[in-house]
Design brief:
By secondary structure, the protein is an alpha+beta fold. It has a domain of about 180 residues. It is about 20% helix and about 25% strand. It is built from eight helices and 13 strands. It is globular, with a radius of gyration of 24 Å.
Length: about 300
């Protein structure tokens, strides 16, 4: 039996294209108008090609001011990104070098994190190229515009809720055996954590002034994430830190942006907002900071993730 083949006539083709046009031309017009409402400001502060002398960080751990002059109103939420160029997270060997079991608190399989499983005599937790090449510059609001000068930097720019809910709630957990508890600095490890087995615990006070005691298993033979990035990752958060969670969702292209924080307040022009950037290590890649505001309540926002 001969196969049934539709006859493509000129009228059928013209009708199809007209139908597609009727559907997509208005959609494209709507998207273009919405895009015109987006306000985006970008400032390069590090890397090859930096042309602004007073916005270049040349030494590790050197803080620099990055100023944005607001000449058009920006409606909150305003998203703060960092951007990297010529950073190839899409390389096969790079993407494979991680242990999903370890990131969930378990034990990595043999060789799964190759070629970066340990440093000298210390096992890395987490291991792998992705986890141990994290962007670790620190970006803090140094000067908030009126009328928010009284807010602390961490109150003005929220660094929580920047990762996908499915990532932070199901894919990242502290190592099995990790213990932490909130207690005053004067309280002993045994009393705070409930056992003499934790007598060699550590103490940590976060940016809000809350004090904790914490204990990691096998710490003498393991380098944990907070030890790899002491200026970025707190020992009580470890692999659940949202900046780390965002970084572990690798990019498909060599130029990419990751969400760093969110400002819920409107910025009314003219205004100026200043960030203090501390470079934890020198980067050969292009790095910039970016502010983005949709300026329209109907424009889709990030919702559950960046």
């Amino acid at each position: 039996m001969a196969a049934v083949q539709p006859v493509v006539t000129p009228a059928w083709v013209v009708g199809l294209f007209m139908t597609v046009g009727v559907l997509f031309v208005p959609l494209g017009t709507w998207l273009k108008l919405k895009y015109a409402d987006v306000v985006e400001l970008t400032q390069q502060y590090e890397g090859s090609g930096t042309t602004v002398d007073d916005c270049s960080i040349s030494e590790a751990n050197e803080g620099k001011e990055v100023k944005f002059s607001i000449d058009k109103d920006m409606k909150g939420p305003i998203y703060v990104y960092f951007e990297l160029r010529k950073f190839y997270q899409n390389h096969r060997s790079y993407v494979k070098s991680r242990s999903f079991d370890q990131l969930k608190g378990g034990v990595p399989g043999a060789g799964i994190c190759s070629p970066l499983e340990s440093i000298d005599t210390l096992d890395l937790n987490p291991c792998g190229l992705v986890a141990n090449s994290m962007f670790n510059d620190v970006i803090v609001v140094d000067s908030a515009p009126e009328p928010y000068e009284s807010l602390s930097p961490y109150e003005y720019m929220d660094e929580g809720g920047i990762s996908w809910v499915t990532d932070r709630d199901g894919d990242f957990s502290q190592p099995d055996g990790f213990v932490r508890a909130e207690c005053a600095p004067s309280v002993s490890c045994e009393d705070c954590l409930g056992s003499a087995a934790y007598s060699d615990c550590g103490s940590f006070t976060d940016r809000t002034g809350t004090s904790y005691k914490y204990w990691y298993p096998d710490e003498a033979s393991t380098q944990y994430l907070y030890e790899t990035y002491p200026n970025v990752i707190s020992p009580v958060d470890g692999v659940t830190d949202e900046h780390f969670v965002v970084w572990m969702r690798t990019a498909a292209l060599s130029t990419f942006r990751n969400l760093y924080g969110r400002i819920e307040h409107d910025l009314v022009a003219p205004a100026e907002i200043t960030f203090n950037v501390t470079a934890s290590e020198n980067l050969c890649a292009f790095v910039c900071a970016s502010l983005t505001s949709a300026n329209d309540a109907d424009w889709p926002t990030h919702g559950s993730g960046p």
